[in-house]
Amino acid sequence: MQISSPKKILLLFSILITSTHFFCTSKSVDSTSNTCDPAISFSKTIKPILDANCNMPGCHDDQVITALKDFQTVHDGAAQIKLSIMTGKMPKNRTITTAEKNAIYCWIDNGAKNN
């Protein structure tokens, strides 16, 4: 496809601006709306969120995909977990609150500690 006409250039530019605005807006809503507490606990905060929303039949149940039951598994998959939540792939067929998302993001961003 040759991009030579002003209409085509304007259309591509409009698509680029719209896409960039959407991506930046949707990313900032979940990842920066709350202050991050570096002391968020895996055992007290993160694991209960995962147990209530992910570790169940048809999701992370060791049958379909590895269960997110222990620290090491969650720690090792932290980057993928964050990306999957940010893109809406997880949790599957469930909704977690913005506060729960932010807690997970914060815990991961602070080193995904075993605390």
Task: Explain how this protein is built.
The structure is a single chain. This protein is globular. It contains 5 helices and no strands. The protein is mostly helical and 115 residues long. The chain has helices spanning 6-31, 42-53, 71-76, 78-86, 98-109. It starts with 5 loop residues before the first helix and ends in a 6-residue tail after the last helix. It has 2 domains: 1-32; 34-109, no CATH class. Helices cover 57% and strands 0% of the residues.
Number of helices in the DSSP assignment: 5
Radius of gyration: 18 Å
N-to-C order of helices and strands: HHHHH
The average pLDDT value, as a whole number, equals 80
Which structural class should the secondary elements be placed in? mainly alpha
What level of helicity do the residues show? 55-70%
How many strand elements?
Answer: 0
Q: How can the largest sheet be summarized?
A: none
Instruction: Count the domains.
Output: 2
Defining traits:
115 residues; mainly alpha; 5 helices; 57% helix; globular
